[in-house]
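Researcher: For the record, we're logging two predictions in this thread. I'll number them. Prediction 1 follows.
Model: Prediction 1, sequence and structure:
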Amino acid sequence: MDQTSPGFDLLALRPNEELRIELKSHKSTAKTLVLTKPEWDEYQRCQRENRAWELWNVENALTNTPTITRFNTIPSSAIMPRQYELKLADCFHSENNDEI
């Protein structure tokens, strides 16, 4: 993702209203999806600042009958931490690898 990304895909505007939309699409149905750190940070910022934010999950996107489900809240029970990306240059390493 571009580091200058605002953390959402679409900004819908009406007079005195704005809605930030994060859009995820799938060829078929989906049980899980991934939000990037900027996307997650934007969701949390919108929650703190009481700004309108929605996740639009598009399933069967390549068919004539896609389904769009709109979510505006992500409960903690929905979060599944599965991996952590490590920047190896910042990690400490053993000086003597022969002891392994």
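Researcher: Logged. Prediction 2.
Model: Prediction 2, sequence and structure:
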Amino acid sequence: MRRSLKRWFVIHAVVSLLFGLGLYFYPARLGGLVGWTDVDVMMSRMYGASLLALSAGSALAYSAHTWDEVRVKVALEAVFCSLSAAIGLYGVLFEDAPRFVWLYVGLMDVFAVVWAYYLVQQRAASRVAPPTANGPLGKPVA
């Protein structure tokens, strides 16, 4: 597995851990810090729990050795980050969400692009024909 993907798992684990802990343990305080006045504490905690689970998944994925071990995780993250970025963008454009949400949208966009990049790269790599034991002109090597 590519070393750069492992680095992204670490970055994602840390970012998700920080936001997840804040939302899980201090939803109203975190909401106040970023200008969100109408905080649904229970929904914030549930989203925080989701981020903590995704953080744990990234930490576990870091220890994987093959693409097959992390393929589903990367696909899940690509979908999750894309949907999160889309709803965050909707919130700042149409729902009067605080400006801090732009940071969130930016982070989710970066992660969505990263995960999609690895999915596309791996798909392209899997289409390359595997090497054969044939020599020049297609004759078997003895």
